[in-house]
Specification:
Length: 592
């Protein structure tokens, strides 16, 4: 297996294109040209299933695929929230090294968003409606462009961030089950593809889209399908085949399918746009021009054993995957500080909880930007949902902590926690704790709230991980990823019947122990004064004993070690561990 980050990929691409004489203006596309006949990118559709591939194989897929969708999904409460999550994670994945592939299961222009799968996505337009749709200036043609206007801001955000997208619009053009598919000829599906391309590129001015022309292997005569749905050479950059026909390698990936794709591409990259049965290393060796494959969501695990997936990712020198970067100093994991560590966070629930940000008050243990939750009166379902950039195994941690402060001082505020998986559509794998109810009781002061995982990991209740692992796990959705979670839900004041209040929050962490409290002295009778001025961080122990300092950048890299003071080179936020005897304090310190 080749383990390559995108930085190295693109470095290789620049070198390779000097020899291949291919310069497209896209790093991704240049790279695909450079690996033709040499390597194939491993890909996976579905953000939650992308995590699962790493849990099975040890490496992440090199290609990350998602869908802007037609209705809410993935634990979000609106299409806009889902699409903002996809954009946020696409940017994260791009900068971490993935190739990005996006698609559209899009509502027809005859209905509003969101829409229904059976009655809308799988409902054909009449011939008269289709004719109107592809005729410029008609109501349906205008409605289609307005539908693209809705998608445009999300693509524009990626464009402005420099994120290139393998864009598979109107996928599976020959699939007549979709409202856009199955119409042959110059005024068929290919015409709508041309209209979509021209509107997003020429009218809206997007420059980050690499256009993927995509068909499905619905018959063995791939050459005929390609001829019937060809939008024209100027309208596509990559030719992709979705492979769903055939239950073994020889018929799913027949030489006739491959040869037809190679002939039609005429030197352009070809790819396996979707598949349920993954190609084997032997298949890729005999069909070396496939530049990537993308397993489809849950079907990857339904049609391929864990050992097959792992072997493909790790044993084949042809397959390119992304290695996991391991932190040798495994410890507490900072999930969010609303500054440089800031995943996609969304308020959710029917109670109308709100989330904004503000600057931390001077003199508080919080620093920089903090989150501000507006909790409605009598909150029953309002929550803060954190969509993590990486999944985690809760068995490796004792719980979650965060700094909290509220303007409500008459009573304590309790919290409920749930852990969910993006790949678990029905939340069958959700684990939760309605019983511990850890509290904020700081009476208006900042306090570090601890939410232990004891109940979440227990085995006596159906909402506990131990119970799920031991009771008929074959009935649990995607049991292979049962112990990995990438969504954290925190419900403040659940069922407490409190008046509306504001909750400030900062420094959300997964904790390996409760031994050190961020920004708060140890429970033993000792304290420190930690200060920073002119690039020097100092600490003074009240007992007069020497204070040992270790200073880290916010990303966890150690800056220096010393006694009493440490010189740092730049302004910014630093993590400081001050120790005297057996007492320690960990704080975030801002160097002005």
């Amino acid at each position: 297996m080749k383990k390559i980050s995108i930085f190295i990929i693109f470095s290789f691409a620049c070198v390779s294109t000097l020899f291949s004489q291919t310069s497209t203006g896209f790093e991704t596309l240049d790279y695909l040209y450079s690996i033709q006949g040499k390597s194939t990118l491993a890909g996976q559709h579905g953000r939650g299933f992308w995590f699962t591939m790493q849990q099975i194989s040890g490496d992440y897929p090199a290609l990350w695929g998602e869908d802007f969708m037609f209705a809410t999904t993935g634990g979000t409460t609106s299409l806009d929230e889902w699409r903002r999550l996809i954009v946020s994670e696409a940017k994260q994945r791009w900068f971490q090294g993935s190739v990005i592939a996006l698609m559209l299961h899009i509502c027809p222009p005859t209905v509003n968003e969101p829409c229904d799968w059976n009655s809308d996505i799988l409902h054909a337009l009449s011939d008269a409606q289709w004719s109107e749709l592809i005729t410029d200036g008609t109501p349906l043609n205008t409605a289609w462009k307005e539908r693209l206007d809705v998608i445009y801001p999300y693509l524009k955000e990626l464009n402005d961030a420099g994120v290139e997208v393998l864009f598979r619009a109107l996928h599976e053009m020959n699939q007549g089950a979709f409202w856009w598919g199955g119409r042959t000829g110059v005024n068929g599906t290919a015409k709508l593809f041309q209209i979509t391309h021209d509107y997003l590129v020429k009218t809206k001015g997007l420059t980050n889209l690499i256009w993927v022309w995509n068909i499905q292997d619905m018959s063995s005569n791939i050459a005929s399908i390609l001829s019937s749905y060809d939008p024209g050479d100027n309208y596509w950059d990559v030719l992709a085949l979705d492979v769903y026909s055939g239950n073994n390698q020889s018929n799913a990936y027949s030489s006739s399918k491959y040869n037809a794709m190679v002939a039609k591409a005429n030197g352009k990259p070809i790819a396996i746009g979707e598949c349920q049965l993954l190609p084997t290393a032997a298949t890729l060796n005999s069909q070396p021009l496939w530049t990537y494959f993308m397993g489809w969501a849950e079907l990857t695990q339904q049609y391929n054993s864990a050992s097959v997936i792992k072997s493909l990712y790790t044993a084949s020198p042809r397959v390119v995957a992304l290695p996991v970067t391991v932190n040798p100093n495994q410890g507490d994991t900072l999930l969010c500080n609303f500054d440089d560590v800031n995943p996609f966070i969304s308020p959710s629930g029917t109670s109308g909880i709100g989330l904004t940000t503000s600057e931390a008050p001077a003199g508080s243990p919080a620093s920089g930007t903090i989150g501000v939750l507006s909790v409605p009166a009598n909150n029953l379902s309002g929550l803060m949902k954190i969509f993590l950039d990486e999944s985690f195994d809760p068995r490796k941690y004792v719980g979650i902590s965060f700094l909290a402060q509220t303007d409500y001082t008459e009573n304590s505020v309790s919290f409920i926690i749930k852990l969910q998986q993006s790949s678990d559509g029905g939340n069958a794998n959700q684990i939760q704790d309605y019983y511990t109810k850890p509290v904020y009781n700081g009476n208006g002061a900042w306090q570090e709230v601890h939410i232990p995982f004891d109940v979440l990991l227990g085995s006596t209740g159906t909402d506990q991980l131990g119970y799920k692992l031991s009771h008929d796990p074959t009935n649990v959705y995607l049991n292979a990823s049962l112990v990995y979670y990438d969504q954290i839900l925190i419900l403040p004041a659940y069922n407490q019947k409190l008046p509306a209040f504001t909750l400030n929050i900062d420094d959300i962490k997964l904790r390996t122990s409760w031994g050190e409290e961020t920004g708060i002295p140890s429970t033993k009778s000792a304290s420190f004064i930690i200060s920073a001025e002119n690039g020097i961080i100092k600490a003074t122990g009240v007992t007069g004993n020497p204070v040992s300092l270790k200073v880290y950048s916010i990303s966890g890299q150690e800056i220096a070690g010393g006694v009493n003071q440490v010189q740092v080179g730049t302004k910014g936020v630093y993590v400081v561990n001050a120790e005297s005897g057996d007492v320690s304090r960990v704080s975030k310190v801002v160097v002005q």
